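Predicting holo structure, adenosine-5'-triphosphate bound.
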Amino acid sequence: MTTTAPAKVTAPAVRVRGLNKTFTTGSLLARKRLHVLQDIDLTIDAGEIVALVGESGSGKSTLARCLARLEQPESGAVEVFGEDVLRTQRRGASRRYRSDVQMIFQDPFGSLNPTHRVESVLERSLRLHGGTGQSASGLRSRLVELVRTVDLDPAVLSAFPHELSGGQRQRIAIARVLAVEPKIILADEPTSMLDVSVRIGILNLLAKLRDERGIAILYVTHDLASARYLADRTIVMNAGRMVEGGPSLELLDDPRHPYTRLLVSAVPDPERSEPFDAGARAELRKEVEAWTSSPQQVTTAVSTAGDVGAADGPTDSEHWVLMPQENR
Ligand SMILES: Nc1ncnc2c1ncn2[C@@H]1O[C@H](COP(=O)(O)OP(=O)(O)OP(=O)(O)O)[C@@H](O)[C@H]1O
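Done. Tokens:
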């Protein structure tokens, strides 16, 4: 008799279940509790990019910061490759966790020490990760390899951050993260401070890291068009809750939830057959308000997982047309 070996089950890179986070603000006499994350569920597989979109203040960064262990949620579970880290690492993230889960921020200048040349910024990360056992030539070739991975010329190694463009600085910030060989990258608006012309290069770099290294990426953004371009799945957040999620193309081309439809309506698309008019948007806004006061989890056919320009108009709206995912 032949027996079939059971299929190997691989845990997702990240699984978040029932996560809640509140902040207390105000003076002693007028304390206010802000429930910033409410019952958040999310999974990200290895080699997958998941975009988190929503209006300003919807809780996207707080969720990323909870995953980076920079914030402590009140309840819920965060599993990384199957390990329930809030239980097993109660006193804070282990050294291993801090290598495996890395964060990229929106301001690449703020995250690089202006007095250090690029090579010493990267060398520091390499040494932290691999100890001090590298020979001088081994170290040099790792530095060159790192900057080449982020598509920069090794000449940048001798530059100071202020001598680089915003896009180059963000690439160095990414190289520094790669020095510790992360399995998960939390990218919080990594292109929002960059010129439109260089944004797509950073998005393509993130896609390369997913495809070639199998890195799981949470991509936090206001820009629906870039989420559509880059992310395998997109999740929409409103006021601390997840309202809708699914494969990016399906979700953003055929949004079901009124809030997602409102966000999508703010991105002009000449190919859209029925343009949204002000009346339609006002109706959607009413539906969103009704949902916010009595939220129900919306499950769409594609279901698995703030200010995206809904009120202020789109940013980079041309990407919607210029960056179709299928032509990437
Ligand atoms: N440390 C903190 N203390 C108090 N309130 C906070 C703190 N951090 C965030 N908040 C509040 O939590 C809410 C969610 O903020 P968060 O930054 O997660 O939203 P976001 O969706 O990432 O918005 P943005 O796109 O503007 O960064 C906001 O109302 C914010 O003011």
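The chain has a mean pLDDT of 84.
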